[in-house]
Design brief:
This protein is mostly helical. Helices cover about 70% and strands about 0% of the residues. A three-stranded mixed sheet has the order 1-2-3.
C-alpha cells in the first residue's frame, strides 16, 4: 500500500498543500492575470496576452514535476464519524475522505489537459489574428477551461467533480461562440443546450447517490453503496447511471455525441482541437474515477454498460466519418469530428474492461491494468489528434476547408503534408505511426484480458473501417494537384507563421519520439504509475 501524504487532517482549520494544487491553481491565476492585464494593455501590445497564456500553461506543467516520483499528496480532507481521516487506499493513492488527491492517475491526465491546452494556445496565435477574435476574452476563457480540466482528475468527491466539469465546460461555450460568422453562435447554442441538459441529469444522479450512500467522497460513496439498505438499491443504481451521463457527454459517447460535428465546424479550429482532446480527457478521467472508485460495488453492471457504449460509439463515429463527402465545405473538420467520436469508443474499452477485472481479496478494479491502458491511449490520441487539427488550421487558414483542398499538398508544402500524413496514419494505427498501433494493441489487450472477446472483434472491424477514410485522405496529400482558382492558390501559398510552424514541428517530434520508443508511454502511463 502506497503511503498518502495528508495535509493535517485532524485539525478543524486545515493547512492547504499548495504544491499539490499548484498545477490547476497556476492556470487559474494566469487566467485572472490575463483578464486584468487586458484592461490596461494598449491594443498594439495585446499580442503579449497570448505569450502570457503560453507562459502560464508552461509554468503549470512545470509545477507537475515536484509531484512525480513522490508519495501521492492529498489536501482538503475531512474526518469521518469515528474521528479519524478515512485513508482507505484505492489504487494505493486515493483517500476516501479527501477532496483533492495528486496521485499518479491525476498527474497523467493533468499532463494531458495542460499540455493539450498549451499546444492549442500556440496554435491559436494566428487564428486570433486572422479571425480578429477578442484577444483578452479568448485567452482568459482558454486558461479558465484548462484550469477546470486540470482540476477534475485530482477531484475525489462528486461535488468537486461537478464543479470542475462545469469550470471546464462553461468557458468552452464562449470560446466556440467567439467566431462571428453566424456559425459560431449556432454551434455554441447546440453545445450549451446539450451540456446543460447532461449536467442537470448528472446533478439529479448525484442527489440520488448522496441519498443512498450518505456521502459525496468517492471512497465513502463506495462503502455506503455496499452497505445501503435493500430499499435504497434501486435509487442508488439509478443515481449511478444518471451521474455518468455528464461524463459521457464530455467524452462524446453515443447517444451524447450529436453536438460534436456542428460544434467543431462552428468553433475556431484550435478550439475544436482543444475540445477533441482536453475536453475528452476531462470527461474520461471523471468517468474512470466515478466508475472505478465510487461505483465499484456495481462494477459488473457499469462494465457491461460501458462495453456496449464503447461498441456503439466507435461504430457510429466511424460510420459518420465514412459518410462525409470530401468535396463539401467543412468536410475536413467534420471528418475529424466524427473520427474523434470513434476514438472515444476506443477510449471506453479499457474502462469497460476494468469493470470485469477480478480484483481478488478485495482489490478494486481501479488497481488493474485497464485504467493504465486508458491513460496510454489518451496520451497517444491527444498528441496526434491535436497535430491533425493543427495542420488543418495551418493549411486551411479559412472557414470551410474541405478534404479536397489538401489534394497535392505534398507538392506545395512537403513537410506539412508529411506531418499530416503521419498524424493520420497514427490515428489509423499504421506504420510509420507505430505509436497509434501500439495504443490500439494496448486497448485490444485490455479487452481480451477481461474476457470481452466480442468487444475486441467489434473494435477490430471498426479499425478496418477507419483505415478507409484515413488512407483516402492521406492519398490525396500525394495526389496530383487539381486545378484551383487564382484566389484559392494565392491563399494556399501563404507562408505559415514561424510560431505555427514551430508548434506543428514540436507536436510531430513528440509523436515521432513516442513512435520510436512506445514503451516509454507504457512506463509513464501504464506501468510504474498504476
Amino acid at each position: 500500500m502506497t503511503s498518502l501524504a495528508v495535509a493535517n487532517p485532524g485539525s478543524l482549520i486545515q493547512s492547504v498543500d499548495w504544491v499539490a494544487i499548484a498545477p490547476p491553481l497556476i492556470a487559474a491565476a494566469a487566467a485572472l492575470a490575463v483578464l486584468v492585464t487586458d484592461l490596461f494593455l494598449p491594443e498594439r501590445h495585446k499580442k503579449w496576452l497570448g505569450r502570457l497564456t503560453a507562459a502560464g500553461l508552461a509554468l503549470a506543467l512545470i509545477a507537475l514535476l515536484p509531484l512525480t516520483g513522490t508519495s501521492p499528496r492529498a489536501t482538503f480532507c475531512v474526518r469521518n464519524v469515528a474521528g479519524a481521516t478515512d485513508t482507505a487506499s484505492i489504487s494505493g493513492s486515493v483517500a476516501g475522505g479527501c477532496s483533492y488527491v495528486a496521485d499518479h492517475f491525476a498527474l497523467v491526465f493533468q499532463l494531458l489537459a495542460l499540455g493539450g491546452a498549451l499546444i492549442a494556445a500556440l496554435l491559436s496565435a494566428h487564428t486570433v489574428d486572422d479571425e480578429k477574435l477578442p484577444r483578452g476574452e479568448y485567452w482568459f476563457l482558454l486558461l479558465s477551461s484548462a484550469a477546470g480540466a486540470a482540476l477534475l482528475p485530482a477531484s475525489r468527491d462528486l461535488a468537486t467533480m461537478v464543479i470542475a466539469l462545469e469550470v471546464a465546460s462553461l468557458p468552452a461555450f464562449a470560446l466556440v461562440a467567439l467566431r462571428r460568422d453566424g456559425r459560431g453562435a449556432e454551434a455554441a447554442l447546440k453545445f450549451f443546450v446539450s451540456s446543460v441538459t447532461a449536467t442537470a441529469v448528472m446533478l439529479l444522479g448525484v442527489g440520488f447517490v448522496y441519498a443512498a450512500s450518505g456521502s459525496l467522497h468517492l471512497g465513502a460513496v463506495a462503502q455506503g453503496l455496499e452497505h445501503a439498505p435493500a430499499q435504497l438499491q434501486p435509487l442508488a443504481e439509478a443515481g449511478a447511471v444518471l451521474t455518468l451521463v455528464g461524463f459521457a457527454f464530455k467524452v462524446a459517447a453515443v447517444p451524447f455525441h450529436f453536438w460534436v460535428p456542428d460544434t467543431y465546424t462552428g468553433a475556431p479550429l484550435p478550439v475544436a482541437g482543444y475540445l477533441s482532446v482536453v475536453g475528452k480527457a476531462a470527461g474520461l478521467s471523471g468517468l474512470a474515477l466515478a466508475t472505478s472508485i465510487a461505483f465499484r460495488p456495481f462494477a459488473h453492471t457499469w462494465g457491461l454498460v460501458l462495453a456496449v457504449l464503447a461498441a456503439v460509439t466507435m461504430t457510429v463515429g466511424n460510420v459518420g466519418a465514412l459518410r462525409q463527402r470530401f468535396d463539401t465545405r467543412y468536410s475536413a473538420v467534420r471528418l475529424l469530428a466524427w473520427s474523434s467520436v470513434g476514438q472515444a469508443g476506443y477510449l471506453l474499452v479499457p474502462l469497460a474492461a476494468a469493470g470485469y477485472a477480478s480484483g481478488g481479496a478485495g482489490r478494486p478494479a481501479f488497481d488493474q491494468g485497464p485504467i493504465g491502458a486508458t491513460a496510454v491511449y489518451a496520451l497517444i490520441y491527444g498528441v496526434v489528434n491535436l497535430g491533425a487539427f493543427g495542420v488543418v488550421a495551418a493549411v486551411g487558414r479559412r472557414a470551410g476547408a474541405s478534404v479536397d483542398d489538401f489534394r497535392g499538398l505534398f507538392a506545395r508544402r512537403r513537410w506539412t503534408a508529411l506531418a499530416l500524413a503521419f498524424f493520420l496514419l497514427c490515428l489509423a494505427g499504421l506504420p510509420p505511426g507505430v505509436i497509434g498501433l501500439f495504443g490500439k494493441v494496448v486497448v485490444f489487450r485490455a479487452a481480451v484480458d477481461a474476457g470481452l472477446g466480442w468487444l475486441a472483434v467489434v473494435m477490430a472491424a471498426n479499425v478496418v473501417v477507419a483505415l478507409y477514410y484515413y488512407l483516402l485522405w492521406t492519398a490525396r496529400l500525394f495526389a496530383p494537384e487539381a486545378d484551383r482558382s487564382a484566389g484559392a492558390a494565392a491563399g494556399a501559398e501563404r507562408r505559415l507563421p514561424v510560431g505555427l510552424t514551430a508548434t506543428l514541428g514540436l507536436t510531430a517530434s513528440v509523436a515521432v519520439v513516442l513512435s520510436v520508443a512506445p514503451q516509454l508511454v507504457l512506463q509513464v502511463a501504464g506501468g510504474s504509475l498504476f
